[in-house]
Design goal:
- The structure is a single chain.
- This protein has 194 residues and is α/β, with parallel strands linked by helices.
- The chain has a single domain, classed as Pyruvate-ferredoxin Oxidoreductase, domain 3.
- It is built from 8 helices and 6 strands; from the N terminus they run E-H-E-E-E-H-E-H-H-E-H-H-H-H.
- A hairpin with a 7-residue loop joins strand 2 and strand 3.
- The chain is globular and about 50 Å long.
- The mean pLDDT is 89.
Amino acid sequence: MTESIFIAGVGGQGLLLASKILGCVLVGEGYDVKLSEVHGMSQRGGSVVTYVKYGDKVHSPLIEKGEADFFLAFEEMEAARWLGYLKTGGRLILNANRIRPMPVITGKAEYPQGIAAAIKATGVDVKALDALALAKKAGSAKAVNTVMIGALAKHLLIGRDKWERAIEALVPEKFKAINLKAFEEGYNCVHTDC
């Protein structure tokens, strides 16, 4: 049996580091883990998707539509764009923040309103949090990724110390304290909406 975690956001949000932390923890738990990263125009704020599959034996990292047990959405519009990958009964962990794409910035389009509410109205199990505010509270707006990993970690029932060791192993020394604090903020966000 395998489990799947679909991660989506935009370039610059640290999705790749988040997937590496996740992979490191899962390998440490003895799982066969496969990761796949799909880069769009990531350096220009475009869509980035990461697939993480783990279990006793995993043959492919790719996640089909309707297969993900967890969907970690780093941005609202990306949550809407990729929601079809979450399986029925799966859980969406949503960073309820907006990163305006270029057409919105230039005035050629408007950012859709009410995305989180519309997703919740479909009956999807959503845990929404303001990961940006929690990252800033931890000391850096760039630590959104470890806030999100903290929120996910609470649901995977793997010891908190293992996540912290993975962060210490993968994050550069000068950013470790902030990222550990950001992880803690996400992990302790126990309310439906933080």
